[in-house]
């Protein structure tokens, strides 16, 4: 299965550094976004360490059961960040989100910790495949308020789970059977916090009306327009976007 992909990360308009990192590993059919946080320069280090580990780990464990491989990958990253923070006390408290996808034949395997997201566009409709590990999402789960109301919550960026923050980490890992013309997008909250689902869907459908015959320029343009819109809407955070299509 051939994978057509495009990805980019942008500092945004307000931050002095970019604590987001992306992994584009076509040889492993693996793609991920990591959004770092905490500590003096710790967010940069946590996210960069994460994406450095990913390609070799996936390559060296390519014959493992995919769900177990994805779970163990995130746990390996978690331990590596903890070890680094223990060696360098000034980095204590650093961590990162990780949202990752891996293509295997007709299935997509997804791993998620934090509030970076994986989306699907199927038959021109947008679906969020991952669930945020945030304080606001916990309120939504309890029925305190709706998803639209959650955007107004001042604690919407407070995470209840992140990679590198605790020894006993639970990773959400699941699979999805790929359908013809599926579009997959991974992004940090710098995008989904500033661009509505409606606008995300509009940009993806406009540039990729028929994913199976889409070209590289169409994907690059979609990524560029998503980042530009997040910046136009304020750009308060770093912005990362990856789009991937499975083309038979």
List the helices and strands and how they pair.
Blueprint: E1 2-10, E2 20-25, E3 30-37, H1 42-60, H2 66-87, E4 95-104, E5 107-113, E6 117-122, E7 125-128, H3 135-141, H4 147-150, E8 172-177, E9 183-187, H5 189-192, H6 197-207, H7 216-232, E10 239-247
Antiparallel strand pairs: 1-10, 2-3, 3-4, 4-5, 5-8, 6-7, 6-9, 9-10
Overall description:
The protein has 248 residues and is an alpha+beta fold. It has one domain: Phosphatase 2c, domain 1. It is built from 7 helices and 10 strands. The strands form 2 sheets. Strands 1-10-9-6-7 form a 5-stranded antiparallel sheet. It has a 5-stranded antiparallel sheet with strand order 2-3-4-5-8, covered by helices on one side. Helix 1 packs antiparallel against helix 2 and helix 6 runs antiparallel to helix 7. The longest helix has 22 residues.
């Amino acid at each position: 299965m051939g994978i057509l992909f495009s990805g980019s990360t942008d500092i945004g308009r307000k931050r002095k550094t970019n604590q987001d990192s992306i992994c584009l590993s076509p040889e492993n059919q693996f793609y991920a976004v990591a959004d770092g946080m905490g500590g003096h320069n710790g967010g940069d280090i946590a996210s960069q360490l994460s994406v450095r580990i990913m390609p070799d780990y996936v390559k060296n464990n390519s014959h493992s059961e995919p769900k177990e491989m994805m779970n163990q990958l995130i746990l390996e990253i978690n331990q590596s960040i903890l070890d680094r923070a223990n060696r360098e006390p000034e980095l204590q408290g650093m961590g990162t989100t990780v949202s990752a996808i891996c293509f295997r034949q007709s299935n997509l395997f997804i791993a998620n910790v934090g509030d970076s997201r994986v989306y699907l566009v199927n038959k021109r409709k947008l679906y969020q495949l991952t669930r945020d590990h945030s304080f606001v999402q916990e309120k939504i789960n309890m029925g305190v308020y709706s998803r639209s109301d959650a955007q107004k919550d001042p604690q919407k960026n407070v995470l209840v789970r992140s990679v590198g923050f605790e020894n006993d980490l639970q990773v959400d890992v699941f699979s999805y059977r790929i359908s013809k013309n599926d579009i997959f997008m991974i992004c940090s909250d710098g995008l989904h916090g500033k661009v509505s689902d409606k606008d995300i869907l509009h940009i993806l459908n406009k540039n990729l009306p028929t994913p199976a015959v889409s070209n590289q320029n169409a994907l690059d343009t979609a990524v560029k327009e998503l980042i530009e819109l997040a910046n136009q809407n304020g750009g308060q955070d770093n912005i990362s976007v990856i789009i991937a299509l499975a083309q038979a």
